[in-house]
Amino acid sequence: MSFKGRGRPKKQISHDPEEMKKFIERLFTLEQEKKMIQEAKKELKEEFEEKVDMKLVSSVIRLVKAEMKITCSPESVEEVSKLIKDKINMVVD
């Protein structure tokens, strides 16, 4: 069975060298900025590693981000959380 010719038609994309150049320049600018931000984050963590519990901060950030993604009621979250905690306590004990 052939699927040729199905789906969306291909866009006619220009191969304008000026547009390519603009895209590539912006892409590499963003890549460089990304590297600079990563380095700044590393320096920030190094600056505070003796003053702040980095594991705690990282864990709480992950927790808060996960909580922000939850779309059901707080009661449902609490119910499931209690079930999981009970199971974990059974395994740990």
Task: Give an overview in words.
- This protein has 93 residues and is an all-alpha fold.
- The protein has one domain (17-92).
- The chain has helices at residues 17-48, 54-69, 74-92.
Largest sheet: none
The stretches of 5 or more residues where confidence is low (pLDDT under 50) are none
Question: What's the domain count?
Answer: 1
Q: What does the average pLDDT come to?
A: 90
Shape label: flat
- Total DSSP helices: 3
Rounded Rg = 25 Å
What is the helix content?
A: over 70%
- In N-to-C order, the SSE pattern is HHH
Number-wise, the strands total: 0
Question: Brief overview, please?
Answer:
By secondary structure, this protein is mainly α.
Please describe the topology of this protein:
Layout: H1 17-48, H2 54-69, H3 74-92
Observed structural traits:
93 residues, 3 helices, mainly alpha
